[in-house]
Amino acid sequence: xxxxxxxxxxxxxxxxxxxxxxxxxxxxxxxxxxxxxxxxxxxxxxxxxxxxxxxxxxxxxxxxxxxxxxxxxxxxxxxxxxxxxxxxxxxxxxxxxxxxxxxxxxxxxxxxxxxxxxxxxxxxxxxxxxxxxxxxxxxxxxxxxxxxxxxxxxxxxxxxxxxxxxxxxxxxxxxxxxxxxxxxxxxxxxxxxxxxxxxxxxxxxxxxxxxxxxxxxxxxxxxxxxxxxxxxxxxxxxxxxxxxxxxxxxxxxxxxxxxxxxxxxxxxxxxxxxxxxxxxxxxxxxxxxxxxxxxxxxxxxxxxxxxxxxxxxxxxxxxxxxxxxxxxxxxxxxxxxxx
Length: 339
Prior knowledge:
This protein folds into three domains: about 5-105, Rossmann fold (3-Layer(aba) Sandwich), CATH 3.40.50; about 110-130 and about 195-335, 2-Layer Sandwich (D-amino Acid Aminotransferase, Chain A, domain 1), CATH 3.30.470.20; about 135-195. Helix content is about 35%, strand content about 20%. The protein has helices spanning about 25-30, 30-45, 60-70, 90-95, 105-115, 115-125, 170-185, 235-240, 245-250, 260-275, 310-315, 320-335; strands at about 5-10, 50-55, 75, 135, 150-155, 170, 190-195, 200-205, 215, 220-225, 250, 280-290, 295-300. Strands 8, 9, 10, 11, 12 and 13 form a six-stranded antiparallel sheet that branches.
């Protein structure tokens, strides 16, 4: 029985990250506390005794707060403990040390998929198409060997951080300049991959990959680029309502695609879930080339689950209300038990 259980909804505050953002709409769209409140309200409407907790800098105090509340499980929305996307796996690891069942993916999947280059190497080793790439710790001193245009992005960030229209470059000089920008600003290696310019899709998947809780993919969604000026789903197009690309890149779910394309997207998504040992909920992002061949851009083990985000939209297409989706994610976490 899930009703009556005490569930802590854990989120990471992004106040420090929002310090330089003045626009209230943009601050609200990026604030993880908004998702935490939505999840808490959804659980409460289903009879779950839920309360949200911020993942602060004092983990001992956080653990004591869980004990005082009597938490029986944690709905894990923590994305950047200590204001660091690289520490996302640490949140799940802490919950495992506390022996609390929690929702979503574990430390291994979070760590591997956060490393975009490692993810692509694993995909390639399984024969799954992903754009050709190079990893640069500093601006290259020789030719990259890649076909232009290419896209340059931080290798270990989330939420399209560091990705703008300027990330797509058309020659070696532009590549060198953009790599220098990424390395300096984000203090990490720059991932440079060949730009795939066809249609863009994403597919959400639920399940634990077990006989009892097998994977199931939601209907594929497409990001429709209404204006050819925009070539990528940038940070601004996701989070800044005042940026022109925000209204020009729109999701369509279900995607208007052939049965064959739908089957291919679903098959590749389930295969990714199996390869990376995903559990709970995840999302896989795709693009096609001009010949319609599918390439995987990214495996996202902790996608946004706010009511107006892609996962909830895909769930509604499948006939699941937001409350039903949140309850199903909790059920899958409880089915895993303490890890």
